[in-house]
Amino acid sequence: MAQKNGFLAIDLAADLAKMTQTITDLAAASPDSAAKATTSSYTSTLPTSPLLRVIFLDIDGVLNRTKEATHIRIDEDCVQRLKTLIEHTDAKVVLSTFWRHFDEYITYILHREGIAADVVIGRTPGRTGSQHLSASAADEAQYASRAAEIKTWLAQHPEVTQFVILDDRPSAADASLQAHFVQTLSDHGLTDADVVRCSELLLNAH
Length: 206
Hints:
The chain is about 35% helix and about 15% strand. It has helices at about 10-30, 30-40, 75-90, 105-110, 130-135, 145-155, 190-205; strands at about 1-5, 5-10, 55, 75, 90-95, 120-125, 160-165, 180-185. It is globular, with a radius of gyration of 16 Å. The relative contact order is 0.17.
């Protein structure tokens, strides 16, 4: 993963090759481990804990400092703040980002930064993978239904006890979700203050 202009640039081809090799190594060591590694985060089994805290995670403007990237990229300090938040609250992640259809790859990237692979438990509904490939992150229409997508996911998972929405766009939360919304500044990304606010929402009953 190369360092460019203060952020981590993702070399997709090289990283996918490494991920494939990792899965191959797991298969040689244990078929069960390999199966777990290749299971999509969208279809993964949710935790059985009576308390399930969820972070609905955007990437652009949260894990990096741009509103509309042309590819998946992360800023290391923002990811480390996310890691701190997850460890402090024992929360799981549901991808609500424009890039959510690349959930296995995002899980792999976060794992390389120290976030366990089983933290990402799914993604919100939306366009199919083929439709998504022709879409642009610069198209504001892509974000218009984000709040509805989050509510659809929540309706299907009543086991969630607390949740927070981390996003830089106000469309991520309508009036019914505002109490759970932590809006980041696109050019700042996830800050320490955001982490504190998210922790308060996840750890305190509403």
